Write the structure tokens for this entry.
Amino acid sequence: MSEWNEAPKTVIEMAKRIIANDHPELMTASIAFVMKSEGEDDQGRSRFKIKPHQTWAKAAKIPAKYDALMDFQFLIWIQEEIWDRLDYHQQEALIDHEMCHCGFNDNDAPSMIPHDFEEFSCVIERHGLWRKSLLEMGKAAQQYIQDDLKFDQTKNEISTSAAPGRVASLTGGQLKAMTNQTAL
Ligand SMILES: [Zn+2]
């Protein structure tokens, strides 16, 4: 069974910086982070076995049944064993990705945003960027490659005067309560 652990400070600090730099829409959001782990067996070996299509992280709205337990709008969980294998830029990209799933609808209620493109590599090989969402993806990739040649990837200072949204790890008690409920 999976275990839920508090998110380390590095995750929280990185999340705040990403909101400040790239997610102004989440400045007022409250986001809880938590690490998911498969734990260790009796011999102290990790029980984690990587699966095809392994989920690296997931963002969700906090269901109403947790209202009494925690005052957050979104929960982002990260698979700890994956996190530990990623380099710094991959970790940033993963958090940025999950934050892209978090938004607010016209009524200002938290809402989940789906991916803006989805495709198989083999279809792109055979048919190219055959729909608008893929063309956009292609443009973004091209832009990134051009920029990457021009600049070093240094975008790490907080660039804002406003304080980033409320980002925190779930605490021990909240984690325990969550474990006792059905998994999100
Ligand atoms: Zn996603």
